[in-house]
């Protein structure tokens, strides 16, 4: 059976415990102690390699320390009966071992970093330990008469070495917030070393340098735990610390610091300060601890104040650009509006102006070059704005790609600022791409500008920002890469739009909308071949609301999916009723508009198929009308949904064809079955030769691709005649009737559908 490398530390613990038990029972004691020493030295030497621990220098130093400790133990045992200074040769090796061990701890500490609070806390423990060691062990050992000087020095040196070790271990413990098992094993090892040295320090008070064999047990256990620490998989975590966010005096920390603080007072009570050395030691030790406590308290107060300032800055500034954020901007605008001295500068025309800037094309940079490139762009724009605008201008980042600039200035100064802002954005920028290369990007911006009226209340800062935001969106709607100055009519339009959205949500939820149907006729017979389902809304208070208004609101507010699903379901149910009642024949189809958002739903085709099965309408009798933008801007998901719809048998027609990106390549790449010639070209038929040529070209292209052609917006017989001459087979418009409710449609057209009607080809 092969022992897993992540279980070797457990095997070493078992081996160490067994050897320690044999040593305690005096069964092959020398062999047991030698086995522990050799195995643990091997663990320190080779254990870090097993788990790819880096750096290995601290472990090499610890291996050297263990080697010197082991040699010291062996030499001390061999020379125990020799006179001084020969008997102290073993101590020389042990002291060297302490040197390497301390160097190892210092190396760990240098990797972790030194926190001043942890250092002060460690010094408090160190001073307390040093004071106790000096008065309890060093001074009594030095006072023993008739003993060689070398013995006295070594007896006093061990407690001091332990004190330094205590300082380093305490500092390590105070530095990290996460103590892995390897660290805990190392800490337990140090406790056992300290216990062992304490035992020798106690007997050293009476002049003894050797003691019972069992006094070596703590050192054997220490070796075992240290070797297990090197073999534990978490040994690599010792190369880095998890810093404590706050160096608080917690209960565990106070259990270490408390006894150290109490040491001078306890020793003063328990020891008689009958010599100047004791008095000076107690006085200096107590003063040092008090000074360290004061330093710790002062540092804690300073750190708290610094943390408070840092938190306040983080709460009020953007982390990427370090510009004020929306919260800080509101405060600064309120101060500007409340500052009456602004009107006392001599120019009564000065007022508070706000510029709301939104970057056009920022998403494209993120999608093309990666988010780091987008972050670089944001930082560069912020830097440019700071350099280009006056120092009196406040620049804030209030969103992902949105900046706000506020300044008290005159109107000519405000317009000059607007030009500077746009120039900052339009100038090419170089960014580092996710692949490590560089790319030059050019973006634009839409900006809304608003002037705060004089004597504006300070609490209107948010309202001012809303007005600037409204003007910015108006600039976007006007074509982007421009600025628009706010006027009150924009606020009224926004308020009306919000009110319409609220009413529309209720109308969709309560199915208060209706559907009207406009016939699509065969040009040669004048009989209806199909009908287009058009959503209508008669508001109980506002009255008639045109689809151009509420469809746009539905698109922006994400209501279009629910609204579109309802229109599809109701129009298919109506077609099923007409088919069942003989109002229309089996070739009659229903044409329904679908939005890009619906086509971006991966489950759209599946749900539509379920609706077709439930209503009993064949898929070929449904035509879905899409916009040209779906073909141009659609994603891979949209393309997949279109393919799934065609697989169902549903036909797909391009609405308003000719007004956008009417390229032959788009029609060939997408699974469309027909096009609808936009009314703007139909209007000019009979009077505009150019419109006639466009329609002729569309018919020729559609015929080559085997696409059905429908002309919309036909209002006059002259337009009808031109379309007939050009070979357009299907049309709709007021010439044959407006969109009407289902009953009116049936009454007007049922008697005219006796003969088969033409339909868009598959």
State the helicity in percent bands.
55-70%
The total of beta strands comes to 16
Radius of gyration: 43 Å
Q: Could you tell me the mean pLDDT?
A: 80
CATH class of the largest domain, named Alpha Beta
Domain GGDEF: 350-488
Transmembrane segments: 34-52, 59-79, 85-106, 118-138, 150-174, 183-203, 215-233, 279-301
Protein name: Diguanylate cyclase/phosphodiesterase
Keywords: Membrane, Transmembrane, Transmembrane helix
Walkthrough of the structure:
Pfam families: EAL (PF00563), GGDEF (PF00990). The chain crosses the membrane at residues 34-52, 59-79, 85-106, 118-138, 150-174, 183-203, 215-233, 279-301. This is Diguanylate cyclase/phosphodiesterase. Residues 497-753 form the EAL domain. The chain is of the alpha/beta class. The protein has three domains: 8-248; 326-486, Reverse transcriptase/Diguanylate cyclase domain (Alpha-Beta Plaits, 2-Layer Sandwich), CATH 3.30.70; 498-752, EAL domain (TIM Barrel), CATH 3.20.20.450. 58% of the residues lie in helices and 12% in strands. The chain is built from 27 helices and 16 strands. α1 packs antiparallel against α8 (217-231), α6 (149-175) runs antiparallel to α7 and α20 runs parallel beside α22 (636-648). The chain is elongated, with a radius of gyration of 43 Å. It starts with 7 loop residues before the first helix and ends in a 13-residue tail after the last helix.
């Amino acid at each position: 059976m092969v022992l897993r490398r992540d279980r070797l530390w457990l095997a070493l613990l078992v081996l160490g415990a067994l050897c320690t038990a044999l040593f305690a029972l005096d069964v092959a004691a020398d062999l047991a102690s030698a086995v522990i020493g050799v195995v643990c030295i091997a663990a320190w030497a080779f254990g870090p390699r097993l788990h790819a621990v880096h750096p290995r220098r601290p472990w090499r130093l610890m291996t050297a320390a263990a080697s010197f400790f082991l040699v010291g133990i062996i030499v001390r045992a061999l020379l125990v009966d020799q006179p001084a200074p020969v008997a102290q040769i073993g101590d020389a090796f042990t002291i060297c071992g302490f040197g390497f061990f301390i160097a190892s701890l210092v190396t760990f500490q240098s990797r972790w970093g030194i926190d001043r609070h942890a250092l002060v806390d460690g010094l408090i423990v160190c001073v307390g330990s040093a004071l106790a060691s000096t008065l309890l062990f060093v001074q009594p050992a030095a006072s023993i008469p008739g003993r060689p000087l070398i013995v006295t020095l070594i007896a006093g040196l061990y407690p001091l070495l332990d004190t330094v070790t205590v300082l380093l271990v305490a500092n390590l413990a105070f530095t990290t917030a996460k103590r892995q098992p390897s660290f805990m094993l190392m800490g337990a090892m140090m406790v056992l070393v300290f216990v062992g040295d304490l035992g020798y320090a106690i007997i050293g008070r009476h002049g003894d340098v050797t003691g019972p064999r069992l006094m070596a047990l703590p050192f054997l256990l220490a070796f075992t735990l240290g070797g297990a620490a090197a073999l534990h998989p978490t040994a690599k975590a010792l190369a880095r610390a998890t810093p404590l966010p706050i160096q608080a005096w917690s209960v565990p920390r106070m259990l270490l610091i408390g006894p150290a603080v109490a040491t001078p007072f306890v020793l003063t009570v328990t020891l008689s300060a009958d010599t100047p050395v004791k008095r000076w030691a107690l006085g200096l030790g107590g003063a040092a601890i008090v000074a360290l406590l004061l330093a710790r308290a002062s540092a804690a107060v300073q750190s708290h104040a610094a943390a408070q300032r840092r938190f306040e800055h983080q709460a009020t500034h953007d982390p990427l650009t370090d510009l004020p954020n929306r919260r800080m901007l509101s405060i600064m605008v309120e101060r500007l509006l409340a500052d009456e001295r602004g009107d006392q500068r001599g120019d009564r025309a000065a007022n508070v102006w706000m510029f709301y800037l939104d970057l056009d094309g920022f998403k494209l940079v993120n999608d093309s070059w990666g988010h780091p490139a987008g972050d670089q762009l944001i930082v560069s724009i912020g830097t440019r704005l700071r350099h280009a605008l006056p120092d009196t201008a406040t620049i804030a980042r209030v969103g992902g790609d949105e900046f706000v600039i506020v300044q008290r200035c005159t109107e000519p100064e405000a317009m000059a600022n607007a030009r500077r802002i746009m120039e900052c954005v339009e100038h090419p920028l170089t960014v580092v791409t996710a692949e490590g290369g560089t790319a030059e990007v050019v973006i634009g911006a839409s900006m809304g500008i608003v002037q705060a009226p004089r004597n504006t209340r300070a609490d209107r800062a948010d309202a001012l920002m809303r007005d600037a935001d409204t003007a910015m969106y108006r600039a976007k709607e006007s074509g982007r890469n421009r600025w628009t100055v706010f006027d009150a009519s924009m606020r009224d339009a926004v308020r009306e739009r919000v009110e319409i959205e609220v009413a529309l949500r209720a109308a969709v939820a309560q199915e208060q909308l209706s559907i009207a149907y406009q016939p699509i006729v065969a040009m040669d017979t004048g009989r209806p071949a199909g009908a287009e389902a058009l959503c209508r809304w008669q508001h109980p208070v506002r009255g008639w609301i045109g689809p151009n208004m509420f469809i746009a609101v539905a698109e922006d507010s994400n209501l279009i999916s629910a609204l579109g699903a309802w229109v599809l379901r109701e129009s298919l149910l109506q077609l099923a009723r007409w088919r069942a009642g003989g109002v229309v024949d089996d070739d009659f189809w229903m044409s329904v508009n679908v939005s890009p958002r619906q086509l971006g739903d991966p489950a759209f085709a599946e749900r539509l198929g379920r609706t077709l099965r439930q209503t009993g309408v064949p898929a070929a009798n449904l035509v879905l009308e899409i916009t040209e933008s779906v073909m141009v801007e659609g994603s891979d998901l949209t393309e997949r949904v279109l393919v799934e719809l065609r697989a169902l048998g549903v036909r797909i027609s391009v609405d308003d064809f000719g007004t956008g990106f009417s390229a032959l390549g788009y029609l060939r790449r997408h699974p469309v079955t027909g096009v609808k010639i936009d009314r703007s070209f139909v209007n000019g038929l009979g009077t505009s030769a150019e419109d006639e040529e466009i329609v002729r070209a569309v018919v020729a292209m559609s015929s080559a691709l085997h696409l059905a052609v429908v002309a919309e917006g036909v209002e006059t017989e002259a337009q009808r005649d031109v379309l007939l001459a050009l070979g357009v087979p299907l049309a709709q418009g007021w010439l044959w009737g407006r969109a009407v409710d289902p009953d009116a449609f049936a009454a007007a057209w049922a008697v005219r559908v006796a003969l088969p009607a033409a339909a868009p080809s598959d």
